[in-house]
Amino acid sequence: MGTVVTIEVVGHGGDAPGRVARADAVGRAIAWFQHVEDCCSRFDSHSEVRQLSDQIGVPVPVSPTTLEAVQFALALAEETNGAFDPTIGAAMVERGFDRNYRTGERVSVATTEHATYRDVEVDAINSTITLHRPLQLDLGAVAKGLAIDLAARELRPFTNFLVNAGGDLYVGGHNAAGAEWSVGIRHPREEGALLDTLRVSNCAMCTSGDYERRSVIDQATHHLLDPRTRHSATRAASVTVIAPLAVVADGLATAAFVLGPVQGLPLLARHGVEGLIVTPSLERFTTPGWAHE
User: Fold this and answer.
1) Cα separation values, 292 from 34, 171, 249, 289, Å
2) pLDDT for residue 18
3) How much is the pLDDT for 293?
4) What string of DSSP letters covers 57-97?
5) Which stretches does DSSP call E strand in the chain?
6) Residue 28's closest CA among 147, 180, 133, 199?
7) pLDDT digits (tens, 9 = 90+) for 104-136
8) C-alpha distance across the termini of the chain, in Å
9) pLDDT confidence of 95, banded at 50, 70, 90?
10) Whether pTM exceeds 0.90
11) In 3-state terms, what secondary structure has residue 231?
């Protein structure tokens, strides 16, 4: 996933059985990130997402992980009228986001120029996905969140824990000081500065920012593309969402980034989550329940 994953479990380690149980749970939690990568990567030719692109028009059996990721992505695409669209993979390649972060290998698949999320069919009963036109799925906006949720599920019996995947995270219970977790939000324009700090517990928090990844072709192009224009979205500099699940926070942060504050805040409100949208001019827009330290 091109990010560093950090897991912290508070307590539960004084005796040998406690240490073993904690280590086993952390190992299972970390393994979920590799599992999601194996399912959802558009860079790995052996992943389920890439296998779909090789079998156009054919119902392809997939794992529950891939099925869940695609189902959620398609639902969000439908709700946003395509402002969020998991078939953005071809546009990502065009803009220079086509290299495997591990190997540097350039990857691509045959695509149809006007393919959209409407060309993807999910059969939940038979656990199959059918691509009706040549296209490349990009599940980057939901896969990391899903992996965080799966990892958090392994750690929930310990009550007090943190799963941090490159700044996208889930926090349970309290920190080592017995307080809610204190989480800083990176300033989108000032290196090393924080835009805000929040106290959170038992929730996920994910941020999408235009500073995260730049194209190797054009440094002015960032990775958060508007599927409708196939260019970098320009209505926001960063969006942070707090939600019960990381997959929800992850996907909604990306969708709200593309939509901008006028349409993005109502989207967050409909889902009952809290969010902060910062425009390129550093104007801040928040949901009513947003509270900082």
Assistant:
1) 34, 16, 18, 10
2) 73
3) 54
4) TS-EE--HHHHHHHHHHHHHHHHTTTSS-TTTHHHHHHTT-
5) 5-9, 60-61, 120-123, 128-131, 161-165, 168-172, 181-186, 194-200, 203-209, 225-226, 231-232, 238-243, 274-278, 284-286
6) 147
7) 667 767 777 789 999 999 999 999 999 999 999
8) 31
9) confident
10) yes
11) strand
Distance CA 274, CA 269 (A): 7
Closest by CA position to 183, among listed 274, 102, 114:
274
Extract the tokens encoding 13: 């380690």
Per-residue DSSP letter, 117: G
| Cβ contact 151:163 at 8 Å | yes
CA distance 5 to 165: 4
Q: Residues near 223 by Cβ (< 8 Å), separated by ≥ 6?
A: 92, 95, 97, 140, 212, 213, 214, 215, 232
Average pLDDT over residues 79-83: 96
Sign for the CA dihedral angle at 93, 96, 97, 103 comes to positive
Task: Determine the average pLDDT of the residues in 49-59.
Answer: 94
Query: Rounded to the nearest 5 degrees, what angle is found at the Cα of 37, between the Cα atoms of 238 and 220?
Result: 35
Q: What is the pLDDT of residues 252-265, one digit of tens each?
A: 999 999 999 999 99
- φ, ψ dihedrals at 16, nearest 5°: -60, -45
| Count of CB atoms situated within 10 Å of the CB of 193 | 10
Amino acid type, 45: S
Given the candidates 3.10.520.10, 3.30.9.10, 1.10.10.60, 3.40.50.1220, the CATH classification of the domain at 158-286 is: 3.10.520.10
Q: Which residue pairs, CB below 8 angstroms and at least 24 apart, start in 99-108?
A: 99/43, 99/216, 100/43, 100/44, 101/2, 101/43, 105/43, 107/42, 107/43, 107/45, 108/136
User: Radius of gyration of the chain from Cα atoms?
Assistant: 19
Task: Give, in degrees to the nearest 5, the angle at Cα 39 between 201 and 229.
Answer: 80
Type of residue at 184: G
Two tokens at 223? 């990775």
